[in-house]
């Protein structure tokens, strides 16, 4: 779930909004202003309903953000990178860079979010209790107390990828001793709950409550897809468990001098030869890496004036892997560094290049051969 609008960074973690967030923000604001506040506090002026609805909706999504940031904080404390936090139509998601290395870490990361939501529920309960004489404080405080408590309880449902499903996976991982097996059981449980939500949503629709029923169906559909994707990833990881970098890398690495203009490089190597990355060398020494992504950042009108050496990634900033390294470990290193390709070195000797595209091609070939 990539953010369409960047809001900034917290603890170095990019925080953003998906475009679907605006739809659910409008729906929450509307439901509060038209339904909840007029029913609970009918003496308020109509304009106050809409103002309080918008503010309360923002505070709700702020609560969701806190939930995800607490997950992220615990992950960072365990040296696990977090690529971003995105708010979207179903709430929020923290993009954890890799799976935890042990069941205890998984348990702590998973449980942190619901505990944060329960803490927020307690805080808003205090606000509601202290501000009962002031409806403008009591009204949002009471609703936010309830919704944060519901958010915590919903996330504790033991179905992957909900936090409760991750807690279940951590427990299974601890007692079974197999991460893959624990993931398979947790994702299967998650799919059962997902189909349960879909079935319940259909019953609610047939009962005449179309909006709430449709929402339950969408939640079930989202959970089912997320669980299915995780199951497929686990199966893929299992199939690649004994594969090394040398089996998936390409040995066709193009070496170029730093003085070559970008226009010549694109015309002679990219458009004609289909090359997507290059090693920049000078006096038989590797100086850097240049990729198609780097070249695409330069406006076409400047191609003739810009050289490879000016926009390359310096060699000392490049993530490197060994040919005997496990392919899954190399992919994890690429994820941690947020790069699409890495050079493969045997000692100081360049022996190949590993890219995500090459890995996908290798996986497809194995699939076609039935391996």
Strand content: 5-15%
How far apart the termini lie comes to: 31 Å
Number of domains: 3
Percent of residues in helices comes to: 55-70%
Mean pLDDT: 86
Largest sheet: 4 strands, mixed
Low-confidence stretches: none
Number of strands: 10
Shape field: globular
Report on this model:
By secondary structure, the protein is an alpha+beta fold. It has helices at residues 20-40, 46-77, 103-130, 135-155, 163-176, 179-206, 210-239, 245-248, 262-270, 292-296, 308-311, 327-337, 356-368; strands at 5-10, 13-17, 82-88, 91-96, 254-256, 277-282, 285-291, 313-314, 341-346, 349-355. The chain folds into 3 domains: 5-156, no CATH class; 177-239; 245-368, CBS-domain. It contains 13 helices and 10 strands. Strands 1-2-3-4 form a 4-stranded mixed β-sheet. The chain has a 4-stranded mixed β-sheet with strand order 5-6-7-8. The protein has a two-stranded antiparallel sheet with strand order 9-10. Helix 2 (46-77) runs antiparallel to helix 3, helix 3 (103-130) packs antiparallel against helix 5 (163-176) and helix 6 (179-206) runs antiparallel to helix 7 (210-239). It is globular and about 80 Å long.
What is the strand and helix layout of this fold?
Elements: E1 5-10, E2 13-17, H1 20-40, H2 46-77, E3 82-88, E4 91-96, H3 103-130, H4 135-155, H5 163-176, H6 179-206, H7 210-239, H8 245-248, E5 254-256, H9 262-270, E6 277-282, E7 285-291, H10 292-296, H11 308-311, E8 313-314, H12 327-337, E9 341-346, E10 349-355, H13 356-368
Parallel strand pairs: 2-3, 5-6
Antiparallel strand pairs: 1-2, 3-4, 6-7, 7-8, 9-10
């Amino acid at each position: 779930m990539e953010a369409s609008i960047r809001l900034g960074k917290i603890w170095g973690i990019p925080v953003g909004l998906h475009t679907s967030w605006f739809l659910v923000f409008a729906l929450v604001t509307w439901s509060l202003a038209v339904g909840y506040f007029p029913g609970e506090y009918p003496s308020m002026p109509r304009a106050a309903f809409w103002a309080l609805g918008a503010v309360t909706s923002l505070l709700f999504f702020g609560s969701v953000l806190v939930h995800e940031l607490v997950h992220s904080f615990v992950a960072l404390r365990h040296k696990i990178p977090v690529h971003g936090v995105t708010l979207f139509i179903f709430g929020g998601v923290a993009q954890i860079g890799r799976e935890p290395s042990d069941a205890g870490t998984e348990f702590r990361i998973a449980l942190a979010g619901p505990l944060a939501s329960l803490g927020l529920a307690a805080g808003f309960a205090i606000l509601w209790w202290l501000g009962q004489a002031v409806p403008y404080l009591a009204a949002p405080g009471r609703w936010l107390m309830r919704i944060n408590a519901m958010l915590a309880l919903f996330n504790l449902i033991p179905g992957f990828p909900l936090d409760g499903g991750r807690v279940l996976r951590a427990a299974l991982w601890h007692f079974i001793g197999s991460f893959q097996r624990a993931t398979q059981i947790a994702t299967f449980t998650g799919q059962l709950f997902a189909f349960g939500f879909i079935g319940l949503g259909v019953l609610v629709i047939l009962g005449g409550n179309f909006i709430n029923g449709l929402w339950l169906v969408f939640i079930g559909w989202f959970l089912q897809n997320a669980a299915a994707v995780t199951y497929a990833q686990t199966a893929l990881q299992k199939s690649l468990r004994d594969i090394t970098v040398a089996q998936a890398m390409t040995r066709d690495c193009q070496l170029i001098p730093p003085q070559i203009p970008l226009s010549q490089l694109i015309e002679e190597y990219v458009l004609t030869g289909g090359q997507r990355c290059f090693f920049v060398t000078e006096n038989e020494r590797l100086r850097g890496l240049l990729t198609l992504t780097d070249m695409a950042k330069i406006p076409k009108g400047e191609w003739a004036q810009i050289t490879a050496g000016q926009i390359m990634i310096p060699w000392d900033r490049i993530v490197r892997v060994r040919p005997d390294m496990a392919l899954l470990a190399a992919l994890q290193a690429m994820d941690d560094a947020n790069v699409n390709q890495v050079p493969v070195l045997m000692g100081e000797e360049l022996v190949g290049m590993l890219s995500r595209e090459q890995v996908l091609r290798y996986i497809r070939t194995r699939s076609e051969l039935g391996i």
